[in-house]
Amino acid sequence: MTLKYYDTTNLNPIVEELFQLTFSKEDIPFQSTVLPICFTTITNIYSKGQSSVYKKTETPLIGLIATGQFYESYQFLVNQESNSYGITFHPTALHKITNLDIHKLTNKHVPLKAFAPKLYELLNPIFLTHKDDAKGLTKSLKKFFLELPITTNKTTALIDKLIAIIHKKEGMLNTYELLDYIDFSQKTLETQFKKIVGLTPGKYIRLHRFLKLMRKHEGKEIDLKDLIHMYNYYDHSHFVKDFKHFMKQSPKDYFKSENAFLNEYLNK
Predict the structure, then answer these.
(1) Which residue ranges run through the membrane (predicted)?
(2) Whole-prediction pTM
């Protein structure tokens, strides 16, 4: 398995990451838990053999796939040699690009052609032209997103402001505290955040906090017990409850198993 990232200079606040993921004959069959990272993605899978399993439902992954915000982990399976190239977006970017309700993608992998046909018609030729040329694909995608018109308004600007606050505080706040920064009612905040980002603010905060803790742990920055207190978990049982929700297994089972793929992208 090879996970490679490409330069995204000047692409913020739209594109967070450009990446290529390849599996050779020696890597398969491959299976890994995927912890969501609070972003949406569009990935082009150039061959058959990849799929995801979420709540016992398996979804084949081939061609241009839009992946929404997931609120819990899913399983990623590969049973053939394969190559894919993906775009990870800022939490509000896919809405700004498509003007669509991002909540329709939540906990789903959907063919881009079905979700956003206009965007598909623009992107698909780029991916096909550079099927075996990651360098050329990167260059063309950067040009595409730098020239792509996006829709911004007062609401998207406010949601961007709240996301910046959540990230700065590393998820250690609650929805009610967000109301201090905007002139929305709680109901309007919930509705607009879910439409633009894909999750409610409360779910986004909880996931972001857990993700930050996991990244610090995988990066071996600090002991797990200290991280649990640092991220305001009341006690170990509270942390275990969150862990089982997001990872679908206990911390004990997770930490005694190999998680090479998860470690790779969490340490990015």
Answers:
(1) none
(2) 0.94
